Predict the structure.
Amino acid sequence: MTRVTGVVLLVPVLLLFLYGPRCDAAPTRSSDEAATSQPRGSRASSWLRSGWRPRYRITPAILWSALIPAAAAVFAAYLAIRGFGATGTLDAQQQYSGHLLVLPVVGIWDGVIAGWRQLQIELAGVHTGGLQTQALFQLGALIIACLGVAGCVRRLPFAYTAYAICGLLVALSAPTAYDPLRGLARYATVLFPLYMCAGSWATEQGARRRLLIGSALLMVLFTVQFATGNMVGTPVL
């Protein structure tokens, strides 16, 4: 209820209810035949080929999904009762962290520009004093996340992909005024379908050990940055 991305769980829950995968209900005959007739690599998008027709019947049980936005509404009401306003958390982010509300494409564009400028500064050897920016690091995180989403489309049911997309769109819709993609990697780390895709890809390519070693080395590097008071992902050690 307290996380801004919590409400987007409604999207994958509805997709799972309508298109699966599910083990608590039998699919309709026509949709089951359509799914099994597809090659294994394309079953994740079989719902699209069937003209968006739900694979599972709509029953009153779908109303349970309304608890997700209801929980967000209850938390907003709690904030209002406490005198912070229903949008108190969003107002605080804007006032104290410099977050803006924009279209995701604007957040992407601003992030690309900021990353390119930081790259130019680093290559030119310009000293920026105490200013630390995650622009280049977060741009790299965005590129990796987008590649992961593309991989999810091919490897996972669409509900998982939709969850990853929604999580990224929320972060991209609220960039900071001075460092557009700041914190994007932190939001991406909770999008578990990206890890499922990475694990599947590493298994296919025989690169599991290399992926684990690379992840461990990055964890050590970022831990050192955090422990020494530096912003994680900046060029400063």
In short: Residues 100-237 form one domain. The two ends are 36 Å apart (CA to CA).
